Amino acid sequence: VVQKLADLISYSPGQVSSKTFTCNDIVRITLFAFSKGEGLSTHSADGDALVENLEGALLILLAGREHLLSPGDSIVLPAGVPHAGHAKENAKMLLTVVFDPKH
User: Fold this and answer.
1) Which residues pair with 31 in a beta bridge?
2) Per the count of CB atoms within 10 A, which of 3, 39, 63, 66 is most buried?
3) DSSP codes of every residue in 10-70
4) How many other CB atoms are there within 10 angstroms of residue 73's CB atom?
5) Over the stretch 14-69, which tens digit does the pLDDT of each residue have?
6) How high is the pLDDT of residue 4?
């Protein structure tokens, strides 16, 4: 069945919602919905991550630099590099993290 990813998750006022499609030793794929003003605090991941903005405006802070993502934009977050995300308006994103199987 063909579906739009953004339709698979709903906004919850004042919250970050998530739906994980798969999570194993190699990959984690998670859909997020951020209410305006909500976000994820600074952290780093054990694998390289791809953020694909599906809807709204996301401000991504990566290694001290700000990147504003519009719908259709994407950014790679290298493993171990501190990053954070903040919704400038209601926003939805798909996060794909690929882990190094050697670690």
Assistant:
1) 19, 94
2) 39
3) ---TTSEEEEEEEESSSEEEEEEEE-TT-EEEEE--SEEEEEEEEES-EEEEETTEEEEEP
4) 16
5) 999 999 999 999 999 999 999 999 999 999 999 999 999 999 999 999 998 999 99
6) 95
CB 30 within 8 A of CB 95: yes
Q: Using CA atoms, how far apart are residues 88 and 90, in angstroms rounded to an integer?
A: 7
| CA distance readout (Å), 26 to 8, 61, 73 | 23, 25, 24
Task: Kindly indicate the confidence band of residue 88, based on its pLDDT and cuts at 50, 70 and 90.
Answer: very high
In the numeric block, the tokens 């998530």 are attached to 18
Residue 8 has phi, psi (to 5 degrees) of -90, 0
Contact of 55 with 102, CB cutoff 8 Å:
no
The dihedrals phi and psi of 63, each to the nearest 5 degrees, come to 50, 40
